[in-house]
Design brief:
The complex is a heterodimer of chains A (427) and B (85). With 427 residues, chain A is α+β, with helices and mostly antiparallel strands. Chain A has helices at 79-82, 109-117, 136-146, 170-179, 194-200, 208-226, 239-250, 260-274, 318-333, 339-342, 407-422, and strands at residues 2-5, 15-21, 28-29, 34-39, 44-48, 53-58, 65-67, 71-76, 167-168, 191-192, 229-237, 280-283, 285-288, 294-296, 298-299, 305-306, 309-310, 336-338, 347-351, 370-374, 378-384, 387-401. In chain A, α8 crosses α9. The longest helix of chain A is centred in the middle third of the chain and has 19 residues, at 208-226. Chain B has a single domain, classed as Orthogonal Bundle (Non-ribosomal Peptide Synthetase Peptidyl Carrier Protein, Chain A), CATH 1.10.1200. Classes of the chains: A alpha+beta (427), B mainly alpha (85).
Chain lengths: 427, 85
């Protein structure tokens, strides 16, 4: 038996609000299952359990703000042990509560999120995936049945006034669906716009932008206070690497194509493996990480900054890393990350958008000891065989913690990074 | 594919990638990458969505031809007809 507690999702979090339970007492859970949604300053987070068992009592009501470490639920027994081991008895359904089959069809957090957006419940959607699980398609189909198909305006006009239907912009319709607003209750002058929908829906109680700013402020102040940074900088000619990437992508569908951003991440992973002294945490002394949990700095749509991590990034090849990154960034931008992704990475990469600044001097995320800043790729003058020619170059900056390493180690990291970046066939 | 259909395809793809853009009020000649602030990942997702909607490949060399709303509508009108029938 164990307790499921309010997790600490990063060095800057001391409390969180339980938004929603995704399980009920009696449900069997396995390590890694998402059981609750928690609201932190930065984002709504899907939180996983770390043991197998059955959900016992739920100790905290949704909507409650509690400090990190507060028990949220009891996890009883061991689900694997409780499942028929070597069927000595006829397979018995799980203990008592929860009538077995129709109890919560399987669905992934993104799909659940999508259902919420359409205001649908699991009962409204017929699952066609494996074992009756609900897929994205199923949700869209169910949403289509109830909303589209009819006239472009998916709501009935208010009973009494307004004989003619107001026009509704697509954005307004999307926002309305997302926020559960009845468009018929809105009166735009002639056309209902996104703004009308926005003003009709009070924003969630937390000012997420301000909270995020405060969280970043606290963490970066700590970094500046505690970490004696040093910087080493190198510029690389990646003209041939980009040509290689063009060939690599030529036969691939858009969704399978790899962006230069993934090259930089892959190069950072390779360099972190080669120079383990920069891959880990400072806790009184340096503690090397076992794998590379690569932090990726992502600007959110709301204007904040999050650095979710790719756990075990050393096991992913270039295409695998790209796939992972696409999913991670999409969810990070929308403020929809998993708890395990918000724990501190072992090293972080930050790169500003294309066409951004030439060089990025980063600030390290405690308790990490290094941050890789990637500048903009652009055609620049470059010397080849004594001649100045135009090449595509990128400048990469390593910020490192001088308590943990010296400049020499940082230089070795950049050498490894540069080698990886200019030998893409080895990526 | 006619212009209206092409526009619907482009608008839908953009809506998925950048829900904060109000297409009605958006200057159709603004660069999506520079003006609308789509980063390379957003832009790729947008290309992928258009490509899947018109069931035609969009090679990297064509990306610039989808960089504004107007350009993209013209591109999709042309490509969509070729692929469609």
């Amino acid at each position: 038996m164990g307790l499921f507690k309010m997790p600490s999702l990063g060095a800057d979090m001391d409390e969180g609000t339980l938004l929603e339970w995704l399980v009920k007492p009696g449900d069997a859970v396995h390590k890694g299952d998402v059981v609750a949604v928690i609201d932190t300053a930065k984002s709504a987070i899907d939180v996983e359990v770390f043991e197998d068992g059955f959900v016992g009592e739920l100790l905290i009501e949704p909507g409650t703000l509690v400090p990190v470490g507060t028990p949220l639920a009891r996890i009883d027994g061991d689900a694997t042990a409780a499942e028929p081991q070597e069927p000595p008895l006829p397979p018995e359904p799980e203990p008592e509560p929860s009538p077995p089959p129709q109890s919560a069809p399987r669905l992934t957090p993104p799909v659940r999120h999508l259902m919420h957006q359409f205001g649908l419940d699991t009962g409204d959607v017929v699952g066609t995936g494996p074992q009756g699980s609900i897929t994205r398609k199923d949700v869209l189909a169910a949403a289509g049945e109830s909303s589209a198909g009819g006239p472009p305006v998916a709501v009935e006009p208010p009973a009494s006034p307004a004989p003619s239907r107001a026009r509704v912009t697509p954005r307004a319709r999307r926002l309305a669906a997302k926020r559960g607003v009845d468009l018929g209750t809105l009166t735009g002058a002639q056309v209902v716009t996104g703004q009308d929908v926005e003003s009709a829906t009070p924003q969630p109680k937390v000012d997420r932008t301000a909270a995020m700013r405060a969280a970043t402020a606290a963490l970066m102040s700590r970094a500046a206070r505690e970490i004696p940074h040093y910087y080493v900088v190198s510029t690389y000619d990646i003209t041939e690497t980009l040509e290689w990437l063009r060939d690599f992508n030529a036969g691939r569908k858009p969704r399978e194509r790899v962006l230069p951003a993934a090259l930089f991440l892959r190069a950072a992973v390779i360099a972190a493996v080669e120079v383990p002294a920069l891959n880990g945490h400072w806790e009184q002394e340096f503690v090397a990480a076992e794998g590379v949990d690569l932090g990726v700095a992502v600007a959110t749509r709301a204007g904040g900054l999050v650095t979710p991590r790719v756990v075990g990034a050393q096991a992913l090849d270039l295409a695998g890393l790209m796939t992972h990154l696409t999913d991670l960034v999409k969810r990070a931008k929308a403020g929809r990350l998993k708890a395990s992704e918000l724990l501190p990475g072992s090293i972080t990469v930050s790169s500003l958008a294309d066409g951004g600044p030439d060089v990025l001097y980063g600030v390290i995320y405690p308790p990490q000891v290094a941050l890789v800043g990637v500048g903009a790729v652009a055609p620049r003058p470059w010397v080849v065989d004594g001649e100045v020619v135009v090449r595509s170059t990128v400048t990469v900056t390593l910020a490192a913690d001088h308590r943990a390493t010296d400049g020499r180690t940082g230089a070795r990291f950049l050498t490894a990074f540069g080698h990886a970046l200019t030998h893409p066939e080895e990526l | 594919m006619n212009q209206t259909q092409a526009r619907a395809v482009v608008v839908e793809a953009l809506a998925d990638v950048a829900p904060e853009i109000d297409v009605e009020e958006f200057d159709p000649d603004t660069s999506l990458r520079d003006g609308a602030d789509l980063d390379s990942m957003d832009f790729l997702a947008y290309i992928a969505a258009v490509s899947e909607a018109i069931e035609a490949d969009i090679p990297e060399d064509d990306y610039a031809r989808l960089d504004t709303l107007n350009l993209a509508v013209a591109y999709v009108t042309e490509k969509g007809s070729a692929a469609g029938s």
